[in-house]
Amino acid sequence: MTAPTLLVLAAGMGSRYGGIKQMDPVGAHGEFVLDYSMYDAWRAGFETVVLVIRPELEAPLREHFGDKLAGKLEIRYAHQVLGDLPPGIELPAGREKPWGTGHAVRAARHAVDGPFAVINADDFYGTDAYRIIGEFLKASTDPKRFCMVAYRLRNTLSRHGSVSRGICTAVDGMLQEVVERTSIELLDDDGVRFLDDAGTWQTLTGEEPCSLNLWGFTPLVFEMIEQLFTDFLAENLDAPKTEFYIPTVVDTLIKQDLADAEMLQTDEQWFGMTYHQDRALVVEKLIKAAQDGIYPSPLWS
């Protein structure tokens, strides 16, 4: 049984947050949200963490972790840079926006050699989510069978602004479709709405299963991403704001019958650092988790 790897998407620019949110201390002893994710993964049997980052973040992250993970987790670093494109494709002049989560996963193709889970660095997924996906990855035998952990949409929203979520449809536990919605809002009356492609507000129940980019893959996905990213660039190379999303990758693979994905579900309550106003709630929840004995304090003591 191969121990799974945790692949962390940590290269985000933090434009809505107003800073480097993946490195904002929120724990009582300077821990990041990322520390808690890594701790939960370690408890669930993960042995390696690959951090996908901008090159300038490597030195401060190495300093932050130091040797406190010795004997627990191995950390590897992979750099997401705009010019890392398939052979024969050149970076278009004026492109500044990152290529998206699909490109970020691709950046780790040389650092991952076994089954792996993908997470966002600034999202808190909850202990149960790592247990669920860890069990799946350790038992996985089919290289074309992927998975995702789905959350109730209502459990994943911020009261401080809109968020992007992949809204999921499943049949008999198998994912059928993931539709990326980029302007989902929680209303004052706890209703939920999103802005569709035509610019019209549509309502949701809040009970829909959704993706928080907690995916489980085998290394075969890197070959698939390479082809889909090449196809994406053929159509969008000169579109400066278009992004290549992992939910869209999985949705395409399912519909082309190239892979399938189990939809695992959790009732965990998400919280994260989408907006700077979210920070106070994150700090409050992590302090309470330590008081309740869910985490030690300091975390890596």
Structure write-up:
The protein is an alpha/beta fold. The protein has a domain at 5-149 and 210-242 and 270-291: Spore Coat Polysaccharide Biosynthesis Protein SpsA, Chain A (Alpha-Beta Complex). The protein is globular. Strands 1, 2, 3, 4, 6, 7, 8, 9, 10, 11 and 12 form an 11-stranded mixed sheet that branches. The protein contains 7 helices and 13 strands. It is 26% helix and 26% strand. It has helices at 33-43, 58-65, 101-106, 127-139, 220-236, 246-255, 279-291, and strands at residues 5-9, 48-53, 74-79, 116-120, 123-124, 145-152, 163-171, 174-186, 192-195, 201-204, 209-217, 260-265, 271-272. The model is unreliable at 14-19 (pLDDT under 50).
Text of the CATH class of the domain at 5-149 and 210-242 and 270-291: Alpha Beta
Structural class determined from secondary elements: alpha/beta
User: Biggest sheet: strands, sense, closure?
Assistant: 11 strands, mixed
Question: Which range does the strand content fall in?
Answer: 25-35%
**CATH topology-level name of the domain at 5-149 and 210-242 and 270-291:** Spore Coat Polysaccharide Biosynthesis Protein SpsA, Chain A
Please give the CATH architecture of the domain at 5-149 and 210-242 and 270-291.
Alpha-Beta Complex
How many helical elements?
A: 7
General form: globular
Helix content: 25-40%
Span from first to last CA? 28 Å
CATH superfamily of the domain at 5-149 and 210-242 and 270-291: Spore Coat Polysaccharide Biosynthesis Protein SpsA, Chain A
SSE series: EHEHEHEEHEEEEEEHHEEH
Number of strands: 13
Q: Residue-averaged pLDDT, rounded?
A: 91
